[in-house]
């Protein structure tokens, strides 16, 4: 065990001291030259896109968009280790903060709760809730470590909390585990079975070395198990959990939920809100059914009980449902010159390399417009619209 | 920063210091109006645009209504600037309320511009004339090279091959005034401001030179307002297009030749006509200082061990680095040196400050290190500051010493008086002695004479 | 992907992307309070004054048509000064082409123009400017829009809005039609832009210069029109109706105006409609078995 630690420490230092020099590669003639980052980047992205689209092509996209997630943070003695600077605990807290924000951005109707393990006891820091700020505030106030870690106690608490949520919700737990042992009051295997039966998906991110019990837990409950090498890797691993996981039909029962989309009132209007029962100055929201005024979204109308959400909130996840079809590569010399446009349809960047040679570009299989590689990435990763298809009325009526 | 002393911040400060008559005359030229507008602070620009189609005076309070609390100071600066440039005419009515309206000539010219769009000051060379014009890149290189040559010439007249020979020695003298000090035995030597000048970016240097050029114009029999208006007009030409010299008058032709030596303009001789091609330096003249200052590629990498690598082929860069670092060897495209205590002491004694050196290193950081924060290692910047403060252990303040007070009360009163002006440097209440800054010496004397 | 440098660049240099509604059905309708030519002359003057303000300012105009969208002007390609002739010529070509694409569909009332297309194009262009280096003009988008919202574009427009928000590009909207636009209200609200529906269109130029000519830097110091309420209604996926109450699929969050047995987007089969996602404790226990 000692050895594992040594190597992992070494690994961390190595990545930290990587110099400012550019990445180099050797070309055919043995000369060193900078890596063609753009081409490399694009190739990586294409691979990612292809793997995504092939997965979704077979089945209809079903994602668990309403998630109930407990983040379990190990604050045992091991979290005070200094192999991540300044300590594991601080680094974990920092990444958890980033994760919580990203999570709510991508999963608008979901809720998070925080649990800590300290002195062999699991404790609920925050109940399930939808406000990132309140979680972060509580977490930052509780950053001290002591005693042993107990996986079983943590799982029991998670199970107890998540057993109450509605059937359409996806139950998840992410455990950030620093310790190399677990100190349990009973048989942890039984608890794992209990979680499995309650369809709680448990994932573990280890901070020291791989543990069999964690791996087993993840395998049983359908979660992911990974061990972070350094801070950057930890960030990557934890953010992997932000996008909604593929829904497994038996895990949650589909349902239609009635909701209202309130309008925001003008700035500077005075009105009495139904949630605090006091006069408020400035924009509030009006329930479409009973016209009561509420201060914040999402919430439940105090008068008629309708769930009120802001529709843009919902719309943030729609790109999961209607992904842009992957663009096709265009062989540079294949398309006759008169048929290929000179500039990218999206950004008007020239598609010609210096010397008027046709450069690399891609084309949308639906609208047949040509795009540059940069736009290709932007369209699929951030915009989620094909500008070509969107500016054609015909293609709209089809879809 | 001491830079302020030797540099008028930009062209527009010069323009605003012109007498009212000349200023009003300048506004008859539409290009001047455009350039003035562009030089204004963002808020002032907005006010001008807002009042462009309003023919009646607007009260100050209604203008202020748009401003948030945070912006009050910006608002004042903007309005002051507009009044100073006589773009706003201010009238105070009976109720003591100020109203503003736009300068009529200025307003008319801008309205024309807004409706018809900008026009070019003169037609560029027609496309059918087949003369090979330099590409933009060539032109940029030409400008940079010419400017560097000029700078080298300026600081070190002996060493340079004489490429800028056409600048008359008397003109060179004018430029060198303030930057170089002449000594009988050892030739010229850079002054404090000269060093600072070299560390500034190209645009700031350009302003300085152009300002000297303009302020010297009256001696050459050229009206400074005419010169300013021509220079501004020049900045509205298109970079890289050729313009016929015939369209210029005699004085402008001489000016163009001078500017060619500075790299603002490239002259080209055609078969029949001669042409002038403005470079980027010329077309950037009317842009305010801050915009273009950081558009240069950096070249300096500083390591934590005080080594300094400058990826540059320029002789001038080497000279500049020599000001505060020891240049160890030079490869065709790389200058390697190190920042040492001795060299820094030399620089400090020449009047260069640590902040100037650090900001020079930061501004010229190679793109690869510029991405990092901080771009210059902290231990290096700290050490440079420490070395500087080593030299400044003793601070000199001109002061006056007071002694022999008639009574303790008078002494106490005098101390309080000095404290109020925050000019009390030292006091000894036992011996009843005190030292105050020179600034309040006169007040102090007056105060004491009343006490007696 | 979000460029950090844009925050540090505090100058007033702007890149203004103007999305101009050229929907022939809107401009020819009798409800439109003023003519296209009048509108154009005011907008051209406005573009002139933007370029006048700063030598480095850049203006790009994209026409939002009925059947297509296209770039019709880019000041970085010319010599700084706005060439009204080139813009008008391009615009004319665009309008003719747009007309030809019309497939004689029966259009009821004033059809919507393709705002989602022009928004997407503008964002692609802005990304290219971001890529060009750490120093670039501050981009913003101005929608000069008159046609009705097209509920069919709901998802695409929302996607564009979120992408703009992530890159910190404000979307200003100037609505010249007779009705408020719920899409543009949301766009401006979410991205921190200004939404304005001028009262008197004859003074459009004055509105444009006083409100929309303000660069992002100066917006910190000035009082600009506050939103008069935002319409957060959504479009349902089944009939593309704009609704303020509806059913949400718990699996994919699709919106429906009526209760269905099966989700048309993700294929999940539904049980009985549930009234709410409840957060309170008693209710949380209730639906679970």
From TrEMBL, chain A:
Organism of derivation: Lactuca saligna (Willowleaf lettuce)
Span of domain VWFA: 68-257
What is the protein's name according to its record? General transcription factor IIH subunit
Keywords recorded for this protein, A-Z: DNA damage, DNA repair, Metal-binding, Nucleus, Transcription, Transcription regulation, Zinc, Zinc-finger
Q: Which GO terms describe its molecular function?
A: zinc ion binding
A Pfam cross-reference name: C1_4
Q: Enumerate the residue ranges forming zinc fingers (C4-type).
A: 287-304
The UniProt entry lists the main location of this chain as: nucleus
Where is this protein localized, as stated in its record? Answer: Nucleus
Q: Name one GO cellular component term.
A: transcription factor TFIIH holo complex
Q: Where is this region: Disordered?
A: 1-27
Question: What's an example GO BP annotation here?
Answer: nucleotide-excision repair
Feature: compositional bias, Basic and acidic residues: 1-16
- Which family is this sequence assigned to? Belongs to the GTF2H2 family.
TrEMBL record, chain B:
The protein's superkingdom reads: Eukaryota
- Keyword DNA damage in record: yes
Listed GO CC annotations = transcription factor TFIIH core complex; transcription factor TFIIH holo complex
Compartments reported by the entry: Nucleus
Q: What keywords sit in the KW lines?
A: DNA damage, DNA repair, Nucleus, Transcription, Transcription regulation
Can you supply a Gene Ontology BP term from the record?
nucleotide-excision repair
| InterPro entries tied to this protein | Tfb2_C, TFIIH_p52/Tfb2
Question: What are the GO MF terms of this UniProt record?
Answer: ATPase activator activity; double-stranded DNA binding
Pfam families for the chain: Tfb2, Tfb2_C
Q: Which residues form the Transcription factor Tfb2 C-terminal domain?
A: 382-448
Q: Briefly state the protein's biological role.
A: Component of the general transcription and DNA repair factor IIH (TFIIH) core complex which is involved in general and transcription-coupled nucleotide excision repair (NER) of damaged DNA.
Q: Could you say which protein family the record assigns here?
A: Belongs to the TFB2 family.
Output this protein's name.
Answer: RNA polymerase II transcription factor B subunit 2
Automatic annotation (TrEMBL), chain C:
Q: One GO MF term, please?
A: zinc ion binding
Q: Where in the cell is it found?
A: Nucleus
Keyword set includes Protease: no
Domain of life here? Eukaryota
Q: How does it assemble?
A: Component of the 7-subunit TFIIH core complex composed of XPB, XPD, TFB1/GTF2H1, GTF2H2/P44, TFB4/GTF2H3, TFB2/GTF2H4 and TFB5/GTF2H5, which is active in NER. The core complex associates with the 3-subunit CDK-activating kinase (CAK) module composed of CYCH1/cyclin H1, CDKD and MAT1/At4g30820 to form the 10-subunit holoenzyme (holo-TFIIH) active in transcription.
Say which family it is in.
Belongs to the TFB4 family.
User: Could you identify this protein by its name?
Assistant: General transcription and DNA repair factor IIH subunit TFB4
Please give the organism.
Lactuca saligna
List the lineage, top down.
Answer: Eukaryota, Viridiplantae, Streptophyta, Embryophyta, Tracheophyta
């Amino acid at each position: 065990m000692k050895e594992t630690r040594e190597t992992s420490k070494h690994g961390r230092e190595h990545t930290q001291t990587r110099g400012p020099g550019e990445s180099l590669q050797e070309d055919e003639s043995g000369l060193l030259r900078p890596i063609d980052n753009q081409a490399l980047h694009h190739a990586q992205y294409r691979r990612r896109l292809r793997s995504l689209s092939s997965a979704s092509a077979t089945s209809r996209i079903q994602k668990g968009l309403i998630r109930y997630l407990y983040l379990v943070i190990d604050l045992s003695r091991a979290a005070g280790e200094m192999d991540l600077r300044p300590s594991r605990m601080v680094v974990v807290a920092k990444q958890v903060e980033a994760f919580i924000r990203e999570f709510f951005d991508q999963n608008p109707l979901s809720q998070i709760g925080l649990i800590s393990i300290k002195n062999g006891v699991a404790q609920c820091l925050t109940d399930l809730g939808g406000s990132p700020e309140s979680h972060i505030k509580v977490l930052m106030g509780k950053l001290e470590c002591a005693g042993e870690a107990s996986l079983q106690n943590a799982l029991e608490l998670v199970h107890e909390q998540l057993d109450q949520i509605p059937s359409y919700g996806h139950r998840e737990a992410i455990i950030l585990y620093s310790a190399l042992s677990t100190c349990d009051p009973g048989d942890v295997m039984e608890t794992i079975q209990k979680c499995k039966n309650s369809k709680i998906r448990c994932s573990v991110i280890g901070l020291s070395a791989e543990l069999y019990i964690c791996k087993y837990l993840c395998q049983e409950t359908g979660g992911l198990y990974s061990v972070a090498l350094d801070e950057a890797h930890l960030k990557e691993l934890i953010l992997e959990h932000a996008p909604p996981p593929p829904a497994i039909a038996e895990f949650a029962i589909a349902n239609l939920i009635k909701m209202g989309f309130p309008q925001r009132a003008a700035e500077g209007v005075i009105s009495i809100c139904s949630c605090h029962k006091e006069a408020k100055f400035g924009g509030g929201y009006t329930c479409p059914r009973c016209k009561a005024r509420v201060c914040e979204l999402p919430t439940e109308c105090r008068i008629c009980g309708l769930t009120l959400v802001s529709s843009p909130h919902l719309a943030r996840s729609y790109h999961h449902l209607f992904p842009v079809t992957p663009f096709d590569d265009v062989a540079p010399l294949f398309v006759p010159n008169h048929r290929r446009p000179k500039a990218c349809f999206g950004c008007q960047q020239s598609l010609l390399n210096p010397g008027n040679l046709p450069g690399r570009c891609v084309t949308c299989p639906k609208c047949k417009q040509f795009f540059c590689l940069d736009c290709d990435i932007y369209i699929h990763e951030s915009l989620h619209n094909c500008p070509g298809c969107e500016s054609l009325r015909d293609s709209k009526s089809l879809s | 920063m001491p830079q302020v002393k030797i540099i008028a911040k930009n062209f527009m400060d010069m323009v605003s210091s012109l007498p009212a008559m000349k200023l009003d005359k300048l506004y008859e030229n539409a290009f001047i109006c455009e350039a003035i507008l562009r030089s204004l602070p963002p808020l002032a620009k907005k006010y001008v645009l807002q009042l462009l189609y309003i023919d009646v005076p607007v009260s100050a309070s209604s203008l202020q209504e748009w401003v948030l609390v945070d912006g009050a100071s910006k608002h004042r600066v903007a309005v002051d600037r507009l009044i100073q440039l006589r773009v706003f005419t201010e009238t105070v009515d009976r109720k003591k309320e100020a109203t503003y309206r736009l300068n009529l000539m200025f307003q008319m010219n801008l309205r024309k511009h807004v409706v018809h769009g900008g026009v070019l000051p003169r037609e560029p060379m027609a496309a059918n004339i087949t003369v090979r014009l330099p590409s933009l890149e060539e032109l940029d290189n030409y400008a940079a090279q010419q400017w560097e040559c000029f700078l080298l010439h300026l600081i070190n007249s002996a060493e340079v091959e004489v490429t800028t020979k056409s600048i008359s020695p008397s003109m060179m003298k004018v430029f060198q005034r303030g930057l170089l000090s002449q000594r009988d035995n050892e030739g010229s030597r850079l002054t404090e401001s000269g060093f600072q000048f070299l560390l500034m970016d190209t645009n700031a240097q350009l302003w300085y030179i152009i300002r000297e050029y303009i302020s010297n114009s009256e001696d050459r029999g050229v009206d400074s307002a005419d010169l300013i208006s021509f220079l501004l007009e020049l900045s509205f030409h298109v970079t890289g297009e050729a313009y016929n010299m015939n369209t210029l008058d005699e004085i402008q032709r001489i000016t163009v030749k001078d500017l060619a030596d500075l790299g603002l303009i490239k002259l080209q001789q055609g078969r029949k006509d001669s042409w002038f091609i403005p470079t980027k330096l010329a077309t950037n003249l009317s842009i305010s200082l801050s915009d273009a200052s950081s558009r240069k590629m950096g070249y300096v990498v500083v390591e934590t061990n005080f080594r300094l690598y400058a990826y540059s082929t320029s002789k001038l860069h080497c000279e500049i680095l020599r000001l505060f670092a020891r240049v160890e060897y030079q490869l065709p495209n790389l200058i390697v040196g190190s920042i040492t205590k001795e060299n820094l002491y030399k620089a400090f004694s020449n009047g260069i400050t640590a902040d100037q050196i650090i900001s020079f290193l930061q501004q010229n950081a190679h793109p690869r290190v510029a991405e990092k924060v901080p771009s210059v290692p902290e231990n290096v910047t700290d050490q440079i500051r420490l070395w500087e403060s080593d030299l400044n252990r003793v601070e000199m303040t001109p002061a006056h010493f007071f002694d022999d007070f008639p009574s303790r009360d008078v002494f106490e009163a005098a101390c309080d008086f000095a404290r109020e002006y925050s000019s009390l440097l030292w006091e000894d209440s036992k011996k009843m002695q005190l030292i105050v800054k020179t600034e309040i010496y006169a007040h102090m004397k007056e105060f004491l004479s009343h006490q007696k | 992907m979000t460029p950090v440098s844009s925050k540090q660049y505090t100058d007033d240099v702007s890149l203004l992307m103007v999305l101009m509604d050229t929907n022939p059905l809107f401009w020819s309708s009798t409800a439109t309070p003023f003519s296209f030519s009048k509108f154009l002359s005011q907008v051209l003057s406005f573009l002139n004054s933007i370029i006048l303000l700063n030598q480095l300012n850049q203006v790009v105009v994209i026409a939002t048509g009925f059947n297509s969208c296209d770039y019709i002007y880019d000041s970085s390609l010319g010599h700084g000064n706005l060439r009204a002739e080139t813009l008008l010529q391009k615009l004319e070509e665009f309008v003719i082409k747009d007309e030809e694409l019309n497939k004689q569909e029966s259009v009821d009332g004033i059809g919507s123009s393709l705002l989602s297309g022009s928004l997407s194009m503008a964002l692609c262009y802005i990304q290219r400017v971001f890529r060009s280096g750490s120093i670039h003009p501050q981009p913003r988008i101005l929608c000069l829009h008159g046609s009705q919202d097209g509920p069919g574009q709901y998802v695409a427009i929302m996607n564009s809005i979120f992408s703009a928000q992530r890159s910190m590009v404000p979307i200003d909207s100037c609505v010249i039609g007779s009705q408020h636009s719920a899409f543009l209200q949301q766009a401006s609200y979410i991205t921190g832009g200004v939404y304005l529906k001028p009262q008197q269109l004859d003074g459009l130029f004055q509105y444009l210069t006083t409100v929309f000519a303000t660069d992002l830097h100066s917006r910190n110091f000035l009082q600009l029109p506050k939103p008069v309420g935002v319409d957060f209604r959504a479009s349902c996926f089944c009939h593309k109706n704009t609704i303020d109450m509806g059913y949400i699929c718990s699996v994919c969050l699709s919106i429906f105006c009526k209760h269905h047995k099966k989700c048309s987007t993700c294929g999940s089969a539904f049980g009985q409609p549930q009234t709410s996602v409840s957060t309170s404790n008693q209710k949380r226990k209730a639906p679970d078995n």
